[in-house]
Amino acid sequence: MKLWRVDFLLHTIMRVLILCTISLTYGQSKEQTSLSQKQLDNITQHYTLSNVDSLSLSQRLYHVSSFLKGAKLSQQDSLVYKGLRQKTWLLSKSKQFDSAIIYSHELYDLARQNKDTFFITNALTKLGFYNKKNSELAESFKYYNEGFKISKISKDSINMGRSLLQMANIQASLGDYSGSKTTAVDGVVYLEKTTDLRNLGGLYHIISVAHIEQKKYEEAFRYNDLALSLGKDSLSAKRIGIKNILVFRNTKANILAKQGKYQKALTILKELVSDPVVQNDRWEYARVIDNLGYIQWLEDEKNENSEQLLLNAKKIREEINDIQGLIASNIHLTKYYFKNDKIKASEYAEGAYQNAKGHRTLTSILEALDFVFKFKENTNEEAKVYSRIHKELEEANQNNREIYAVTRYENDKLANKILVLDAQKAQQESETARQRSQKIMYLLGTVILALSGGFVFYLLQQRYKREKIREVYDAETRISKKLHDELANDVYNVMVQIQNEQNSPDVLDKLEEIYNTTRDISREHNSFTTGENYAAELTNMLSGYSSNETKIIIKDIEDVNWESVDPEKKIIVHRTLQELMINMKKHSEAGLVAVTFKKTLKNVGITYADNGIGVSENEIIHSNGLRNAENRIKTIGGSFIFDSEKGKGFRARISFPN
Questions:
Q1: Is 531 left (phi over 0), alpha (psi -120 to 50) or beta?
Q2: Domain map (residue ranges) of the chain
Q3: CATH class of 534-658
Q4: In 3-state terms, what secondary structure has residue 28?
Q5: How many whole angstroms separate alpha carbon 184 and alpha carbon 163?
Q6: HEC sequence for 564-622
Q7: Residues 19-59: pLDDT tens digits?
Q8: What residues does 640 pair with on adjacent strands?
Q9: Quick check: 110 and 82 in contact, CB under 8 A?
């Protein structure tokens, strides 16, 4: 049973128990459907007390529960709404997120019953928020998307933008930076002409963060500047939130550091350290001194301040239980000690891994494991976790894309309908004037355009035909040769066997072998996209060779900016890796395969390694598949280097300019 199903079952049981308790404790006869003014005053007093900050959270929860009980007896939905909103808020403050989710569902059910879009949206926002706090990001994304759709119906552009901001943040948390960017850009459309500067700034910020993760630093800088420019005066800065402005400035320092502009980055961070708002906020102060220590180390590994700053940040984060911050601190300390103190580096890497596991931060688990692999000799268990988490992330991101894709399609369809109506109206208004003043010019232009267009079309059509004829010929030749070499002889031999040995079990085995060969040929020649989903398709192709006997690990594929790679190079990379995976499946008997991607300043590097039986130098020389792979890479100016011995696995290093 999947985790979300268990959680759903627990939530349902808790809801039933709470409702039964309310019914048993406060059940009244049907005649008692209203309260006297004195009773209403009494329950209102409970609500007032639930807002008193000097009371403990448990006392405030007691008062709001008493108010909610009375509100339900009064049968006044406005009071029930009020009580449910207050109770979910107090449960959230006390970190009882499961209970907050249950009462948010109750709020949603009541709002749906009354067809009240305001409270439906409010309940969906709460469900998104509390599920996110509970680390149930997929559930959270679903509820925010539903809230967006309701806001779309009620034409509430501010709530639409806010929902999309939360969805973009979730996608970024799951490592889907392309999806996050797309969602956030959609959100900007709804908020850029409103006064909601706080959430507009948040959208610009998450777009900037997505560009940082994709190593598009100029674009990251541009959107960071857009976020900062919103706070051009004290009133605007107050609307955005002073702490949010500080986060934007901290991000600006990180972008500058990524570009190697360390002095400019350090200037910003030193200003932030001295800011009274930062000094009075331990969460923000820890973030700033952690970045300050890390960037000082990047500029000068021998400086005397970095170690203490990094350790101080970690200590503060431990004291305030900032788990996400602790992951960042442990990663920075791992990098700091990596060269000179492997034992400490290993301890901090393990700390980051344990923090990420405890908080179920999937992308951080993978980041921490990348360092754990460098220190531990036996990483079989970690490799299994890495593979499982990677697959879980892929599934979550795919589900989120599908959820929002449907919503986006509905929006586009509505927008297109409006555009068509506007275009028709404009065309009708201008038709008479256009016919009167441009008839002759239009006719002449049409003739010239038709002649020119026809000539160009003819040339392009002829060239296209020649190219397609050649492509078809090459494909037919290749597939024909494959069918002849791999299937014709097998089919003939089976025919002979059937004639001579009609009851031989070998015949069925041979037929199955022919079927598998046919399937492999089909898969080898499948088409694939070279567009924005290229990385996902390449991942799916590689993962498709995983089985119970063979585990496939794919690392750092998102580090490569595939959008900047030529389509022809993408095709060759896909076919080359496919050739390696086919060879592995047929010959290597490997239990573990790792494909690692690395982007340098001028090249893209790919390393393939397996723990199979390996091949001899003579077998490599006579391998048509490997020769084909090498020739493909050479056509794009790259290199393809093999390294293998019998019994020692197979390794290949691919590099090509980009």
A1: beta
A2: 486-525, 534-658
A3: alpha beta
A4: coil
A5: 10
A6: HCCHHHHHHHHHHHHHHHHHHHHHHCCCEEEEEEEECCCEEEEEEEECCCCCCHHHHHC
A7: 444 444 444 433 344 567 777 778 889 999 999 999 999 99
A8: 654
A9: no
